[in-house]
Amino acid sequence: MSDAAERRPNRLRLSTDALTGNWRALAAMSGRAACGAAVKADGYGLGGRDVATRLIAAGCRDLFVATWAEAASVAGLGARVSVLHGVREDDLPLVGAADVRPVLNSPAQVARWRQAGAGRACDVMVDTGMNRLGVSPQDVAAGLLDGLAVDTVMSHLACADEPDSAMNARQCAAFAALAGRTGAARMSLANSAGIALGADYAFDLTRPGLAVYGGVPVPALAARLRPVVTIEAEVLQRRVVRTGETVGYNATWRAPRDTAVAIVNLGYADGYWRGFSDRGRALAGEAVLPVIGRVSMDLIALDVSDADVGEGDWVALEPDLPRASAASGMSQYELLTGLGTRFVRVWG
Question: Alpha-carbon distance 296 to 298, whole Å?
């Protein structure tokens, strides 16, 4: 880490033990199926290559990214890399690494890969009801994939975070019906929440994302996962706001009494969203420090009446993703992938 990075006024404190422990827990829940990991969106905001290196050291051998640009950052580390958005015409100059392959999503992509792939392995997405990406089961039955070197055929659950949804069973049955019809070596359906649906959804390979990073998509996973990331930020100023005075834009918070307030080097430009205004919280040791007033671009205000916190001290923001999601109204996915570039990322 450079001296300039060490001197930044906010950082992400990242836990290797939590990351790899979460992945191992999900791998155990996957039973006989292999367990991969989604490292798209720069490792869900934590740093794709840093995440991939740690997961590979823990035993992960399948990584999933969205684009070929993302693939370049995690290729060559010792795992297979699948590009979920397939292969566009503009991607063809990037194709080449032996450990990177497209997940073909349309008949046009299949045709493009037949021409450019030179018989190399690919993966294929089949749409079983989400109506997002994927070829249709009818395309498969008509021979669209015949002769392709398909490693993994996969589909994606639309309602896995709603365990009682009838759509889960319908998609699982539609996917199971593809067995033996694609020439694929492996089948993959379950994401993080899908793993919690049980063994019928595991097939040969699971593809967790959010849960690897400490997000909790369904309550059944809560006891097995630990937060991976904690935002820490430096206090710029401690001040006293007198009774009746207000704090921040639009004066949304008014002091009910003389209140000690810390102004902290963090804001929505860093991915600490306006939804935390008057709802978020920070921690200083055992003390809980409520966010008061509007979150602005670069600053937040905390009520530090019950804490010995002053200029130059550091505070930690709420690391529990479900709690932070409930407070802010943002999904756990958005909270992670929105973490900004001004943070220095510190792994421990």
Answer: 6
